[in-house]
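lol ok so funny story. i was supposed to be doing the assay writeup but got distracted and ended up predicting the structure for this chain instead. priorities right. anyway since i did it might as well share w the group, maybe its usefull for someone
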Amino acid sequence: MAATIIFDMDGTLIDSSDLIVNSINHVRHRLGLPPMDRQTILQAINDTTIHRPSFFYGVPEYSPHHLAWFRDYYTSHHKEQSRLYPGIKELLNQLALDHTLALATNAYRQSTQELLEHTGIGHYFRWVRCGDEVPNPKPHPQMLLEILHQSQTSKEDAVMVGDGKTDEEAAKRAGIPFVKVAWGWEEDGEGVQSVQELLERLQASTP
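and the output, tada:
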């Protein structure tokens, strides 16, 4: 049984798909670009092979304007365009009895804090690492390794839970087991099918 469980946020705990898609398309609108379809955006977010600034906005790197436009829309709409997946609060409540819970998300700290406060699950996580707090976000293992170091958890006593290739690759490079959930943004049908199954996997001796 893993002592420390590291969760991804978007697509794993929180269904923020509408919020992410609409925020990106808001920036594209400001740039004079047509909207991108929903599934293309969601697949690209978990695709570790693409260069996202070029893919989403046709630019070599994000500019301060891109980030500001994204955050403005995100902050203004996060309450009505995001929600917990069914059963997640009960899952965290149960796991917190016997495990240390952590969060590793590529979302920026401000966005993460807004979603955690809105959904009421922030207090479950002893450690939270965000995409703008490390030089190398997922799929690089840096934030996972930092959580292991801060929590004094060995790789053998940790597990990562996520919904896509970005999380899976980060866990693999960090040297810790990975459990994929099937309700996230990758529509391949692979992974744990229910919150109850996830609970049973995480409470087992080996994930």
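Residues 17-77 form one domain. The chain has two domains: 4-15+83-203, 17-77.
back to the writeup now i swear
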